[in-house]
Amino acid sequence: MRKILLSLLVLAVPAAAAAQSAEDIAGARIGYYRLLGHEMSLLAAMAKGDVEYNAEKAAAAAKDLQTLTQYSVSDLFAPGTSNAELPGKTRALPVIWEDMAGLGDKGAAYVSAVEELNGVAGNGLDALRPAVGKLGGTCKSCHDDFRAKDF
After folding, report:
1. What stretch of H or E contains 104?
2. Which pTM does this prediction carry?
3. Domain housing 94
4. SS3 content of the chain, % helix, strand, coil (to 5)
5. Residue 5 above 70 pLDDT?
6. 92 is a domain residue
7. Which of 146, 142, 29 is nearest to 84 (CA)?
């Protein structure tokens, strides 16, 4: 009986994932990017001098960003989840689905900047600042092309 229930559960999980609503998918995407923003906000505050530089915290935030780059975001960009289909729920512009290659290029630049940041985050404020600036530039580039300014 246990094996049957386990088998049914294993079969039900992919079916449940496939049945997610567009709002759920957009919400998961928003949650993922909020995690990125959470880590980036500490690093940016240190780089600007708003928060005292702390090598351990900077390195940990950079490591968290690197960990998040290992997550496959492709299922978070399901068709039907742009701000055209979900007004007021997401700022993802429909152009994303017209230019997935461009989105991928921007994602690759982001990953590269995160890797660079990880090499220097714990090495002092003078090393952190330019790496955070470069990383922030990759975020801005993507936002400029693929994210609406407001809901």
Report:
1. helix 100-120
2. 0.85
3. 20-146
4. 75, 0, 25
5. no
6. yes
7. 146
